[in-house]
Amino acid sequence: MKNVKTLGLLAFTVVVLTAFTGAASATELTSPKGTKLVNGTAIKASVLFPTVFPGGVPCEASTINGEIINEGNANATVVIAGSSIETMLCGPDTVTVLDPGVWEVHTKNAGSDNTGTVTSSGVAITTMSHRSVMGVPITIHCIYETENTDMGILEGGTLEINAVFPVRTTDGSCANPKWTAFYGVTKPAGALVVD
Q: What is the pLDDT of residue 17?
């Protein structure tokens, strides 16, 4: 009888551990594959094509800089603290990043390799769009800020941003709160893999 109880307890323990293991999503960044990026590692990405920031403002050049502050493990996502988001060549409009926020990398599917989804909070962007309405120049000022916002996908060292920002402050005519862009990771050098 004692052996039956022991076997029953052992089976129950295996089921519980399996359930927790299945629920946990291991997320780590490696570069090259198998070499884990640890806390303090600098991350840099540069835009591959012209990007459109919230407010519908196009910019030809942009870089994102950050640093890993949580390297991730079997129970935690990778967290990157943004240090700067730079924008250049935005025509007559201006894009100013008030806060580069915090970014999290999650595995897309349990056991997926090289692909992760990205969310962010606290990325605050202000835009000044200069337009002419019936010959009268106007400026539309908008502020957008992420709140656990789905930013897009990190795959093979490319960050595809396709995000809709909540509007934090608006002139009443702010529109197009979407940011679309393709960034290539340039730091660390070499392939960036989501494990």
A: 31
Amino acid present at 191: A
Task: Count CB atoms within 10 A of the CB of residue 83.
Answer: 13
Domain region containing 17: 2-194
Burial of 36 (0-12, 13-18, 19+ CB in 10 A): middle
Residues in the chain: 195
Please tell me the distance from the alpha carbon of residue 67 to that of residue 86, in angstroms, as a whole number.
15
The pTM of the full predicted model, rounded to 2 decimals, is 0.80
Return the top range by mean pLDDT from 19-23, 42-46, 188-192. Answer: 42-46
Pick the closest to residue 89 from 52, 132, 124 (CA basis). Answer: 52
Task: State how far the Cα of 53 lies from the Cα of 37, in Å rounded to an integer.
Answer: 29
Q: Given this model, what pLDDT does residue 55 score?
A: 86
Q: How many domains does the chain have?
A: 1
